[in-house]
Design a protein that fits this description.
The relative contact order is 0.17. The chain is α/β, with parallel strands linked by helices. Helices cover 39% and strands 25% of the residues. It folds into 2 domains: 137 residues, Rossmann fold (3-Layer(aba) Sandwich); 33 residues, no CATH class.
Length: 174
C-alpha cells in the first residue's frame, strides 16, 4: 500500500510529529513525507492512503490547507485518509480531543468530507525561535490563556505516546 504524509508547518513542529509518525509506521507499506507547499497532483494520485497534519498559528490554519482540501476533496473521499491538528490550546484538558478542540471542530465543518481518522496534538511554544513580533504576540496570548511566559525557554506539550498510538492506528487503516 502506498501512503502519503503531508504536513503544513510554520515552525517545524508539525513536520517533527509527521517524521515521528513515519518512523512508527509498518515498514511493509511505502510512505512518502512531503510538505504541503511542495505537493503535486501526482503525489495524491499514486497514494492509497493519505495523512495530513497541520498547525495553528494565531487561531488559524495556513490558507493553503483549506485550498488543498477543497481542491482534492473528490479524490480524498475515495481514499483512506487521516488528519491531525497541532495547536497549543490542546495542552488543556477539555480541548485535547477531536470532539472538543475548537480549531479542529471549525475546520471539519468547512470540509466536504470527513477523514477516516482524526486526532489533535498539543504543540510547542518555542520563544527562542520566534522573531520579535511573534514572540511578544504569543507571549500576550499565553498571558491571556494562562500558558507559559518564560521567553528564554521552549515549552513543549506534545504527548509522544499519543502520537505513537495515532501512528499505529494510521498504519492499520486499510
Amino acid at each position: 500500500m502506498k501512503g502519503l504524509i503531508i504536513y503544513s508547518s510554520v515552525d517545524g513542529h508539525t513536520k517533527k510529529i509527521s517524521e515521528r509518525i513515519l518512523s512508527k509506521l509498518d515498514s511493509s507499506d511505502d510512505y512518502e513525507l512531503i510538505s504541503l507547499d511542495d505537493l503535486l497532483d501526482e503525489h495524491i494520485e499514486k497514494a492509497d492512503k493519505i495523512l495530513v497534519g497541520a498547525s495553528i498559528r494565531y487561531g488559524k490554519y495556513r490558507r493553503n490547507l483549506l485550498d488543498f482540501f477543497n481542491s482534492y476533496s473528490d479524490v480524498l473521499i475515495r481514499k483512506k485518509t487521516a488528519f491531525f491538528s497541532v495547536n497549543v490550546v490542546a495542552r488543556k484538558e477539555g480541548k485535547n480531543k477531536p470532539k472538543n478542540n475548537p480549531y479542529l471542530i471549525k475546520l471539519l465543518k468547512k470540509l466536504s468530507f470527513k477523514p477516516d481518522l482524526i486526532e489533535v496534538f498539543a504543540g510547542v511554544v518555542d520563544y527562542p525561535k520566534y522573531n520579535f513580533f511573534d514572540k511578544y504576540i504569543i507571549l500576550f496570548i499565553m498571558f491571556l490563556t494562562k500558558g507559559p511566559k518564560d521567553i528564554s525557554k521552549t515549552h513543549e506539550f506534545t504527548d509522544w505516546d499519543k502520537v505513537d498510538l495515532f501512528a499505529k492506528l494510521f498504519s492499520d487503516l486499510r
